[in-house]
Request: fold
Amino acid sequence: MQTITFPGLNLEFHISKVAIQIEKISIHWYAIFIVSAFVIALYFCKRRNGLYNIKFENILDLFLILIPVSIICARLYYCLFRLDVYIKNPIRILNLTTGGLAIYGGIIGGVITCYIYCKKKKIDMLDLLDYIVPYLSLGQAIGRLGNFVNVEAYGIETNLPWRMGIIENNQYIEVHPTFIYEAIVTLILFFFLIKLQNNRKIKGEVTYTYLIVYSLSRTIIESLRSDSLMLYKFKISQILSIAIFVTFCIILWFKKIKYKKTKIHDKKCKKITYEM
Reply:
């Protein structure tokens, strides 16, 4: 049992990492939140059956492959940049109960899986990604609650009113609850993407918008994190976030210019046809 406080808000929580204990079998809250995120994402996907002419059956088939692949890739990505810890005891790589999943690893694995699946099923990949990406954002918001229970993914020390009090290395410190920042951003982003999903003008617009907004927020939040994955003196997630932000801003900008030119051309053609 661990104690987490928010002294500025006069809140105190006593939390155990284990949700259910049956003899020697422990079911951790972290695992429950991760599974719940996938289940809730599937539920919302089912409600959008037929969107962009994609059947929910295809989404369900994809998720059966996507879930294990994303978790494995998220774990391997995390362990890759913590080799100094895991090289000494590789069996620890299999232990997910204390956290250690990197979202960018999961996204990379998920995109590769989607690409292969779309090629095999002859589905437009941008349509499929625009279908599922809002629920990825929702799943991230839910999954971050697991960080709260595990007391991880928090930030540097602060004296802000919403600071979080924890015990680190037997010392009491007050830090940024950065996992809450990300949960709030991804939840708001979910609602925005749902609205955009219904008013999409360009294929991939929902996906590009998600990548732009999430990478920008992650760049800012990562600057406050105290447990970032590092490459030499640089924060991996921050470098990747900046690269994604710049790349997809450019892609979306060019796509919108092309869309506007097409609309202008279509209007001119209609006007000529009408005058004739």
Q: What stands out?
A: Helices lie at 29-47, 56-80, 83-86, 103-121, 125-150, 178-198, 205-222, 236-275.
